[in-house]
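Run log // design_07
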């Protein structure tokens, strides 16, 4: 018995070691930095307690304005992308599920292929497509007579949010779709046949068969999409550089600017902790909402 416990511990030990080294230790160190005065140049400058958090949340400082604006921009991005990435991917999965077997593999590959592309390549392609002057979309629409003048997709609001949403959806919708496809494959086909005999159409099957069987995956996709959207950085950084002005500068870009440009690692760490708290609160809220729905069902 002791030998078996020793073997089990040997298998678990590498995971615990990497967990402590690459997650727990940086996490605790980040909290310590958020409570301190810290600079990339001079290093540790003394313990501040909650001063950094007060400066971010309750003062009229530039850090407060940066945090509020970054959080606002991030929430806008989440609201723009999450519904499409959740319900749109489900719709694609339902369409694929009804294709002939010989075509399913082809369309799965087509929709999922974009997810394997790096964010740098995605941003470069969409900058070329949606550039205000000389962009492919504007040239095509003007040649067709649909537009009289170029649309400033990357230069003016609200078009910039549309461009970022389109790029993000094209890039990541295939991953969510594959999760839904796998969930749909696990539904017993006999349920469809029995409901069809009773006269149930697609919408009845969707409500009483499909959604109850894939609800766990649906909530998982919803939550992971929200978290991923909260962590957006590459698309606005590469496509718009946070512009026009700072209207598309997400919270992570504000944190990076605080650390690198303003040389304040303590306040930047405090912003990161607050961002983590916001994400955790969203996760807890989603958990209780879905738990309540499960009880109602």
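design_07 sequence
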């Amino acid at each position: 018995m002791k030998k078996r416990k020793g073997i089990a511990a040997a298998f678990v030990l590498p995971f615990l070691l990497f967990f402590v080294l690459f997650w727990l230790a940086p996490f605790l160190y980040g909290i310590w930095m958020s409570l301190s005065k810290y600079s990339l140049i001079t290093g540790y400058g003394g313990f501040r307690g909650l001063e950094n958090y007060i400066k971010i949340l309750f003062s009229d400082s530039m850090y407060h304005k940066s945090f509020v604006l970054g959080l606002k921009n991030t929430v806008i991005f989440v609201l723009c992308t999450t519904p499409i990435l959740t319900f749109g991917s489900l719709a694609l999965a339902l369409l694929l599920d009804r294709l002939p077997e010989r075509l399913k593999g082809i369309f799965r590959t087509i929709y999922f292929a974009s997810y394997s592309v790096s964010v740098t390549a995605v941003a470069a392609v969409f900058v070329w497509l949606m550039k205000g002057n000389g962009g492919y979309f504007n040239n095509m629409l003007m040649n067709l007579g649909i537009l009289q003048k170029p649309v400033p997709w990357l230069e003016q609001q609200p078009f910039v949010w549309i461009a970022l949403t389109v790029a993000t959806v094209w890039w990541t919708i295939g991953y969510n779709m594959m999760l839904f496809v796998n969930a749909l494959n696990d539904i017993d086909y006999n349920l469809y046949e029995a409901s069809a005999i009773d006269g149930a159409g697609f919408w009845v099957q969707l409500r009483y068969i499909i959604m109850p069987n894939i609800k766990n995956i649906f909530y998982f996709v919803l939550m992971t999409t929200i978290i991923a959207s909260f962590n957006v950085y590459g698309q606005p950084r590469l496509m718009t550089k946070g512009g026009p002005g700072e209207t598309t500068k997400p919270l992570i870009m504000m944190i990076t600017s605080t650390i690198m440009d303003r040389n304040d690692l303590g306040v930047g760490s405090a912003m990161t902790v607050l961002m983590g708290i916001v994400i955790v609160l969203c996760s807890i809220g989603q958990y209780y909402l879905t738990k309540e729905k499960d009880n109602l069902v």
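The chain has one domain: 60-296.
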